[in-house]
Amino acid sequence: FLEDVKGQAKSELQASESRYQAQLRVTQTLQTELLQLYSRVEMEALASCSTGASPPGGSAHPHT
Amino acid sequence: FLEDVKGQAKSELQASESRYQAQLRVTQTLQTELLQLYSRVEMEALASCSTGASPPGGSAHPHT
Amino acid sequence: MADDPQRNFRSAYYEKVGFRGVEEKKSLEILLKDNPLDVEKLSTFSQRFPLPSMYRIHVWKILLGILPPHSDSHALVGGYRREQYENILEALEAMRFISSSTPTTEVYLRMFQLESQVLPRRSEIPPMEEEDADFLSISQAMEEIVVNAMDCYWLIKCFFNQFNTKFGDSLPHLPKSLEHYLSQEEPRLLNHLKSTGALAQLPYGPWFNRCFAGTLPESSLQRVWDKVISGSCKILVFVGLEILLNYKIILMGTSRPEAVVKFLSNIPQENTDAIVTKAIDLWHKYCGTPMHSV
In the list A64, B8, B41, C61, which could disulfide-bond C66, CB 3.0-4.6 Å? Predict the structure, then answer.
């Protein structure tokens, strides 16, 4: 019976673990996308500097 | 003794769930951020159309 | 033990020269060897005695539920805590919410906000709320006490959450409680503070909402936090009371409430250890010493 309880606990923990892993993959994908988008935004900002358009986002560094 | 095993399993599961929940919040936050950034990029694209700069990203819809 | 004269002599000697904690340290070590740990006994110990500094962080983590009672789960759970910490940090960096130049206390605040789903939009960060300022102040003090950044974040977060959940409803009553005990200990000072209008303006926010973070230096503060973390917010009343009693002469000689507030918001940092010791004694006198077996 004890083994039963332990086995159940283990499978619950595994389920939680795999939920977490799935979410972690989503997060990583989103972070990569964010990184790409930021660098594009910064390039745009550089390119459109002369038009007087304000750089998109306060944290973009148009000088780098 | 059985209660003890159960208690231990429960606290491990709670810690694992807390890690999962945090990851869920991370995903939500990243999604919101991405969404905002995309809409800003689109606005920028609209605004700078006249300068001849290409719209940033194929997913931008300048007509909407 | 009682009929061991040498041991008694040694204890008395330690007591005289300030090593009173030796016996206490031993009993704490026995408690910490339990598996599972008896969290209630650890709370009682912490209510009665100051925690030896080498065990303080570990005991706080157990009392705040950062580590579970079963010692053989500590590695697993500790790993979960580390991953949770790292993932949140990484996401905030990816969003450029924080950078390497962001002050760590602000990093902790943003992490906490993300976890509590109240992270503001990066483009429209609102002015600091009072609760955020409390969080930052507690973070700043915790940072002085805890070296490891991950431990520090978890302790701040759980301390802040536990304090507000457990004592949020009691906090508004603490000023009245302070008034009551002041009337017992020093009615003349109470009357003076009342008649000058200073009583209503005492720095209750920094004292009670921030648990004296920013008021007391960390070496004294951690002994107060031992009591708060192990389950008492009443101790805060007695620390406030002892501060008033300690500076009675200065306070009696001041009639302008602004001057009183200014002085109390920036008390001298020299004899705060004595103030805390007296506050704990007074707290035990009025509220009793927890007598569970230790």
Answer: C61
